[in-house]
């Protein structure tokens, strides 16, 4: 066992220069980063989403977006390219900004900024904003700028949302008001065009029709009585011998038809086809032969009194005929209006239902507009749910990063691990014969004796000198290389950040 330990100790001594180079390289990089990375200061602020000051039973907010979602939307708008470039330029966040491209500035701003939203059931919604910078004042200024933007954006978001809601319902009320006015005008115009057939006056028209029909019947009876009276006067005049008259054939036919008409009226209705036919024939005969036309057999045979009586009766008959004609025209108009009333009623009911539906929508829109106006007043007065600042960003007094001890120790640890890994890997892949046991394992025989390799003293000294020189060069060259890289190419902290960014760590 002791020989095994001594063997591996010899291997360690043999590979120590390379292992030392690895350890020094990694440790040097870690120490170099720890010494050269500038201090960074982190400023933070906290904001709280406060509930509405007015009770929900008295006021319902017209802004229904959840607080966490609203803050996330504000964050997305805040982290836009234009905003980040303006803020970085305003507060001179990066000392080497002139040498940075806009994409690099935006990427660095997003990497150094942190938004943390915490919320939960029965818990307050809190937003924490932090920013890291090499300048403590710039870090605080950037966070306060973010806070100002969030507060302003929250007010604008809520007022704009409530204002848009009010504008929507105001436009809806105006649109429905115009629609109501148009429908009302259409209803009025329709009623005026069909004033004689409106359903409200149907009972009146039916009563009026009955009255007119009674008047027509009464006029027909009066006319029949007058004709009978005239016929009697003619008969009396003939029988007295005052004069000799002979009725014309047309008069005789009229008398016959009138007699038949009286008998038919006792059986048929006044508006039946039979009665209308008889009345039409009487009118035709009367138009061809006036009622006062008689044929005198003797000149001057009729007395003047009889002529005056006949003329008066004829005048009354003509007046009754004119009255009947007027009443029949009125009856025709009433019948037409009564026939059109159901159709007018159906159309008017449809228009009225549409008007009532629009009126209901209008009333609902007016109530919604009133609620929206109340919402605008509440949001303008900042009485609704809002974001409030509870902790403002202050200039940090001590850097928060880097942890120089951790970086330096990490470099040494990584170098030690890589050196140990190098030793193990080289031992695993080395299959050469270096010990008697390796000879026995490789050849499958047991040697009687082994003679070690004897190295000359001068060769050994030269080999040790070369190793020492190599180690010294590595120890000196690594710090010089890091210094040159930091001075002439890119600062080690930026180079380290770029490496992390490229590797996604």
Order of helices and strands: HEHHHEEHHEHHEHEHHHH
What amount of the residues lies in strands? 5-15%
Termini separation: 45 Å
Q: Compute the gyration radius: what is it?
A: 60 Å
What is the quaternary state of this protein? single chain
Adjacency order of strands in the biggest sheet: 2-3-1-6
**Into which percent range does the helicity of residues fall?**
55-70%
- Shape annotation: rod-shaped
Number of contiguous helices: 13
Q: Got a strand count?
A: 6
Overview of this structure, please?
This protein folds into 3 domains: 2-37 and 402-500, no CATH class; 41-171 and 372-391, Alpha-Beta Plaits (2-Layer Sandwich), CATH 3.30.70.1130; 199-365, no CATH class. Helix content is 70%, strand content 8%. The radius of gyration is 60 Å and the shape is rod-shaped. It has 505 residues and is of the alpha+beta class. The protein has helices spanning 2-36, 67-78, 81-90, 102-112, 136-193, 202-239, 249-265, 273-288, 304-380, 404-429, 436-443, 457-489, 492-503; strands at 41-50, 113-120, 123-133, 245-246, 295-296, 386-391. The longest helix has 77 residues, at 304-380. Helix 1 (2-36) runs antiparallel to helix 10 and helix 6 packs across helix 7. Mean pLDDT is 77; it is low at 241-245 and 291-301. Strands 2-3-1-6 form a 4-stranded antiparallel sheet. The chain has a two-stranded antiparallel ribbon with strand order 4-5. It has 13 helices and 6 strands.
Structure in a nutshell:
With about 500 residues, the protein is α+β, with helices and mostly antiparallel strands. Helix content is about 70%, strand content about 10%.
């Amino acid at each position: 066992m002791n020989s095994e330990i001594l063997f591996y100790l010899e291997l360690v001594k043999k590979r120590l220069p390379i292992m030392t180079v690895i350890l020094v390289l990694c440790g040097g990089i870690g120490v170099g980063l720890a010494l050269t990375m500038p201090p960074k200061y982190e400023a933070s602020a906290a904001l709280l989403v406060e509930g509405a000051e007015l009770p929900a039973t008295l006021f319902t907010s017209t802004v229904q977006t959840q607080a966490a979602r609203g803050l996330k939307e504000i964050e997305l708008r805040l982290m836009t390219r234009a905003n980040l470039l303006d803020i970085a330029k305003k507060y001179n966040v990066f000392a080497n900004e002139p040498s940075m491209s806009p994409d690099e500035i935006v990427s660095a701003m997003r990497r150094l900024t942190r938004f943390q939203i915490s919320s939960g059931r029965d818990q307050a919604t809190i937003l924490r904003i932090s920013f890291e910078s090499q300048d403590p004042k710039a870090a605080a200024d950037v966070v306060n700028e973010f806070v100002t933007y969030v507060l302003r954006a929250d007010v604008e978001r809520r007022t704009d949302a409530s204002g848009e809601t009010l504008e929507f319902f105001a436009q809806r009320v105006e649109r429905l008001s115009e629609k109501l006015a148009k429908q009302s005008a259409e209803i009025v115009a329709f009623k005026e065009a069909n004033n004689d057939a409106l359903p409200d006056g149907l009972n009146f028209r039916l009563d009026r029709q009955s009255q007119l029909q009674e008047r027509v019947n009464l006029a027909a009876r009066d006319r029949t009585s007058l004709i009978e009276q005239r016929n009697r006067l003619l008969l009396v005049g003939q029988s007295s011998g005052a004069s000799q008259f002979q009725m014309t054939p047309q008069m005789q036919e009229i008398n016959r038809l009138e007699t038949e008409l009286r008998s038919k009226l006792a059986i048929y209705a006044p508006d039946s086809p039979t009665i209308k036919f008889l009345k039409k024939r009487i009118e035709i005969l009367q138009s061809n032969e006036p009622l006062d036309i008689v044929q005198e057999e003797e000149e001057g045979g009729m007395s003047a009194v009889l002529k005056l009586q006949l003329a008066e009766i004829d005048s009354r008959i003509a007046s009754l005929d004119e009255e009947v004609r007027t009443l029949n025209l009125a009856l025709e108009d009433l019948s037409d209006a009564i026939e059109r009333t159901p159709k007018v009623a159906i159309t008017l009911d449809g228009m009225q239902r549409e008007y009532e539906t629009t009126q209901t929508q209008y009333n609902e829109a007016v109530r919604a507009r009133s609620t929206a106006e109340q919402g605008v007043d509440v949001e303008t007065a900042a009485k609704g749910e809002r974001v409030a600042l509870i902790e403002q960003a202050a200039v940090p007094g001590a850097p928060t990063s880097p942890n120089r001890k951790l970086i330096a120790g990490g470099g040494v640890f990584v170098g030690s691990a890589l050196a140990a890994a190098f030793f193990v890997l080289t031992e695993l892949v080395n299959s050469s014969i270096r010990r008697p046991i390796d000879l026995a394992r490789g050849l499958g025989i047991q040697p009687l004796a082994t003679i070690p390799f004897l190295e000359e003293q001068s060769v050994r000294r030269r080999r040790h000198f070369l190793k020492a020189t190599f180690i010294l060069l590595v120890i000196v060259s690594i710090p010089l290389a890091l210094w040159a890289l930091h001075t002439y190419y890119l600062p080690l902290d930026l180079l380290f950040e770029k490496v992390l960014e490229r590797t996604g760590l």
